[in-house]
TrEMBL record:
GO terms for molecular function: rRNA binding; structural constituent of ribosome; tRNA binding. Keywords: Repressor, Ribonucleoprotein, Ribosomal protein, RNA-binding, rRNA-binding, Translation regulation, tRNA-binding. This is Large ribosomal subunit protein uL1. Part of the 50S ribosomal subunit. HAMAP family: Ribosomal_uL1_B. GO terms for biological process: regulation of translation; translation. It comes from the Bacteria. Signal peptide: none annotated. One of its GO terms (cellular component) is large ribosomal subunit. Binds directly to 23S rRNA. The L1 stalk is quite mobile in the ribosome, and is involved in E site tRNA release. It comes from candidate division TM6 bacterium JCVI TM6SC1. Belongs to the universal ribosomal protein uL1 family.
Length: 231
C-alpha cells in the first residue's frame, strides 16, 4: 500500500523517476508538479564520495545565497554590554544573556540561528541538549561563537546558511521557494554547489558529487547532473 497521497502519486506518474534532466527543465518541472497549498521549499540532496565515519572526510560549510531562502532568518545573540548593543544595531531579533538562557530552557526556540560571544559560552553550554539536536547551538567552526557579533548577525540576516553531510554522506539543503522564478533558483543552487565543492575534504577520493536530486517539500525527486552547474 502506498505511503503517499493521491496528489503525490499523480505527480510521480507525471515524471519518470530515474531520468536525469537539465537543470532548467528540472526546475520548471518541479514547479509544475508542486501541488501543496503552501509555498513549498525547493531542496537539493547531494550524494558525496566521502566516508562520513571518518573525521577527515566530514563536509561542512556555509554560503550566502544571492536571493536568500524566501524569508529573513531570525537571529538571537547571547551577549552583554557593548557586544549586546552591537548585536542590536546589526539587526538581531533578540539579545540577552542569563535571561535569554532561561527563556530557551523554558522551551522557547522560535529562531533560526544563535550567536554567542566566547565569554558567555559557559552559560550557553546549558542549552546543548536543546539547541544541539536542532542545529542551533553556537559553534566556533561556523563562526557563530565570536566577539564580532555585528558582522555575523549581518551575514545571517543577508542569507548566510550552513550545510553539513549526514550519516549517509548526503548533504540536504534548501535553496529557495517554489514561488521564486527559475533564474533566482538557479543562481541560489549554483552558489550552494560552488560552496559545497570548495568544502571538499582532501581525503575524498573519486567523483566528489556522485548524484544530485531536486525536490520540493511535498514533491517528487528529479535527478540532475551537478557538473552542469560547474561548467
Amino acid at each position: 500500500m502506498s505511503k503517499h497521497g493521491k496528489k503525490y502519486e499523480q505527480a510521480r506518474k507525471a515524471h519518470e523517476t530515474g531520468n536525469v534532466l537539465p537543470i532548467d527543465k528540472a526546475l520548471a518541472k518541479l514547479k509544475d508538479l508542486a501541488y501543496a497549498k503552501f509555498d513549498e521549499s525547493v531542496d537539493v540532496d547531494v550524494n558525496l564520495s566521502i566516508d562520513p565515519d571518518k573525521g577527515d572526510q566530514v563536509v561542512r560549510g556555509s554560503v550566502t545565497l544571492p536571493y536568500s531562502k524566501g524569508r529573513q532568518a531570525r537571529v538571537v545573540v547571547f551577549a552583554k554590554g557593548d557586544y549586546a548593543l552591537q548585536a542590536e544595531k546589526a539587526g538581531a531579533d533578540v539579545v540577552g544573556s542569563d535571561d535569554l538562557v532561561d527563556r530557551v530552557l523554558g522551551g522557547w526556540t522560535d529562531f533560526d540561528f544563535a550567536v554567542a560571544t566566547p565569554d558567555l559560552m559557559g552559560i550557553v553550554g546549558k542549552l546543548a541538549k536543546i539547541l544541539g539536536p536542532q542545529g542551533k547551538l553556537p559553534n566556533k567552526k561556523q563562526g557563530t561563537v565570536t566577539f564580532d557579533v555585528s558582522q555575523i548577525v549581518k551575514e545571517l540576516k543577508q542569507g548566510r546558511v550552513f550545510f553539513k553531510n549526514d550519516k549517509q554522506g548526503i548533504v540536504h539543503f534548501s535553496f529557495g521557494k517554489a514561488s521564486f522564478d527559475n533564474p533566482k533558483l538557479r543562481e541560489n543552487l549554483v552558489a550552494f554547489i560552488k560552496a559545497l565543492v570548495a568544502a571538499k575534504p582532501a581525503a575524498s577520493k573519486g567523483k566528489y558529487l556522485k548524484k544530485m536530486t531536486l525536490t520540493t517539500t511535498m514533491g517528487v525527486g528529479i535527478q540532475v547532473n551537478p557538473d552542469e552547474l560547474l561548467s
